[in-house]
């Protein structure tokens, strides 16, 4: 693989791209690369700080864009309003101001709309994202689920037993506060523990909560962990819990859990049902009371490791993704 890194001239270039949606340096470098390489396919990923101008075609190549988030239609990229409400209105000027960020007025220009129309195929990691994007955009789109690498062949024991696992950013929209509060209410009804890994602004609050409620030994907040320990915890957990309150575009951590043979339990938000439901729709909940019922009745023996891994191999493994991706590209280049 040949890479062509593009160095920015000024440390403030990302801020300039945020404010104006434009970067003359990036556009010149991108145009030069297209002329030099003459690609058959250009696939855009995570271009928020590169400027929307590179979406415009500089040749006859197939122009793809994968929506890893909601950047095309949302200045906040997460499709959330204040609190924990999901936005249904699309772009607005006030939303960034509520987060003390300047508005992106370029989102309302004809230049941005023209750049969006230059996308030949909008690739989305889930049907949820595709349908949500289609409410605002008139671009041909296709769903292509994400993938995660195959797990290590040998995974050592974690040292923990009979526990559920939360792994992710320790932020309000991830639902971790509601999860630890639920465990505080049910800790007398179950012997299972809760292990939390990840970093974020809520870490100290979570630690203070379990100390105040005397949950030591029942709840463990480990903070950031390396890949080795993460896989060990995923493998040993009764189940991974993904209690997100925002419309997840996908869930890589849920896919990682499936890859080691551990089921995932998730809220009915965004694309989570499209990942977790591949194993069992009964692991998807609509309310905290439903999550409580799932946890109290949960039996990992109902989900044999081999069966769970097979779901990963079929839907979320690198070979599965590559097969579908190449089929898409070959079909579209022939059609074009």
Descriptive terms for the model:
336 residues; alpha/beta; Rossmann fold; four-stranded parallel sheet; 13 helices; globular
Short description:
By secondary structure, the protein is an alpha/beta fold.
Q: What are the SSEs and their pairings?
A:
Layout: H1 13-20, H2 24-37, E1 41-45, E2 62-66, H3 94-98, H4 110-117, E3 121-124, H5 127-134, E4 141-143, E5 163-167, H6 176-186, E6 193-197, H7 203-212, E7 219-223, H8 227-236, E8 239-242, H9 252-259, E9 264-267, H10 272-276, E10 284-285, H11 288-297, H12 305-315, H13 318-335
Parallel strand pairs: 1-2, 2-3, 3-4, 5-6, 5-8, 6-7, 8-9, 9-10
Word description of this protein:
With 336 residues, the protein is α/β, with parallel strands linked by helices. The protein folds into 2 domains: 151 residues, 3-Layer(aba) Sandwich (Rossmann fold); 154 residues, Rossmann fold. 38% of the residues lie in helices and 12% in strands. The protein is built from 13 helices and 10 strands. α9 packs across α12. It starts with 12 loop residues before the first helix and ends with a helix. The mean pLDDT is 92.
User: What is the straight-line distance between the termini?
Assistant: 26 Å
Low-confidence parts: none
Considering the protein shown, what is the CATH homologous superfamily of the largest domain? Glycogen Phosphorylase B
As for the CATH topology of the largest domain, it is: Rossmann fold
- Give the CATH class of the largest domain: Alpha Beta
Largest sheet: 6 strands, parallel
By DSSP (H or I, 4+ residues per run), the number of helices equals: 13
**Helix proportion range:** 25-40%
Q: Average pLDDT value?
A: 92
Structural class: alpha/beta
Order of helices and strands: HHEEHHEHEEHEHEHEHEHEHHH
The count of domains is: 2
In which order are the strands of the major sheet placed? 7-6-5-8-9-10
Principal-axis shape equals globular
- Backbone CA Rg: 22 Å
What share of the residues does DSSP label as strand, in percent? 5-15%
Count of β-strands: 10
């Amino acid at each position: 693989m040949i890479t062509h890194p593009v160095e920015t001239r000024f440390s403030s270039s990302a801020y300039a791209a945020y404010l104006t949606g434009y970067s003359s340096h990036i556009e010149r470098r991108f145009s030069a690369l297209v002329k030099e390489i003459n690609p058959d396919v250009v696939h855009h990923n995570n271009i928020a700080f590169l400027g929307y101008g590179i979406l415009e075609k500089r040749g006859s190549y197939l122009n793809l864009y994968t929506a890893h988030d909601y950047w095309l239609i949302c200045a906040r990229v997460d499709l959330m309003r204040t609190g924990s409400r999901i936005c249904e209105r699309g772009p607005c000027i006030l939303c960034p101001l509520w987060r003390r960020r300047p508005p992106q007025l370029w989102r309302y220009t004809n230049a941005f709309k023209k750049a969006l129309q230059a996308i030949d195929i909008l690739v989305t990691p889930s049907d949820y994202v595709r349908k949500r994007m289609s409410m605002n955009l008139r671009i041909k789109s296709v769903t292509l689920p994400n993938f995660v690498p195959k797990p290590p062949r040998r995974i050592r024991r974690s040292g923990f037993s009979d526990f559920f696992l939360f792994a992710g950013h320790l932020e309000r929209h991830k639902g971790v506060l509601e999860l630890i509060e639920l465990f505080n209410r049910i800790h007398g009804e179950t012997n299972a523990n809760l292990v939390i890994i990840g970093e974020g602004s809520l870490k100290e609050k979570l630690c203070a909560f379990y100390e105040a409620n005397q949950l030591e030994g029942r709840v463990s907040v480990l903070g950031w962990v390396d890949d080795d320990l993460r896989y060990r915890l995923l493998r040993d957990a009764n189940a991974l819990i993904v209690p997100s309150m925002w419309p997840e575009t996908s869930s890589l951590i849920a896919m990682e859990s499936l890859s080691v043979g551990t089921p995932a339990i998730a809220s009915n938000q965004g694309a989570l049902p499209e990942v977790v439901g591949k194993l069992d729709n009964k692991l998807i909940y609509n309310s905290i009371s439903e999550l409580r019922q799932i946890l109290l009745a949960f039996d990992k023996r109902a989900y044999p490791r081999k069966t769970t891994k097979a779901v990963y191999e079929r839907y979320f493994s690198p070979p599965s993704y590559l097969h579908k991706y190449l089929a898409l590209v070959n079909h579209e280049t022939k059609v074009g």
